[in-house]
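Protein in question kept underneath.
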Amino acid sequence: MAAAAMLTASVTPLATFTYNGDEVLFEAMGIYLNGSLSDSTWGLFVIGAISSLLSLVTLFLYKKRMLQIRLSIFNTVVMVGFYIFFGFVLYQINAVDNLHFQRVGVGIIMPVIAIILTILAIRRIGADEALVRSLNRLRR
């Protein structure tokens, strides 16, 4: 679910602004002014895609629980990096006069959901690892 949330964040609008009466759409791939690409923000898309792929890879490492936990923690850091880079880009375009914030898009909420889901997964993977270790002690 975290992979789907980050993929959604990468392909849906993050925010909408108005500039001199024209609509400015902020997506992970770029900033679009009246439908044409104004500035490229491909870094946001790359961060979202890496996080999504990392979530999928982590899913299939179920026999290596400690590696799963480490990759999930790294993935959480990558998702926080998505917000840091988003804030940096917003700070850069905020210097433009006559740019007014209009509304938040669905894509900006999805990394928070992915972070929460990843933290929940880390907790459950840790509980599974503790259970396996306790059962290994009983077998000896």
Remarks:
- The longest strand covers residues 99-104.
- The chain is about 65% helix and 20% strand.
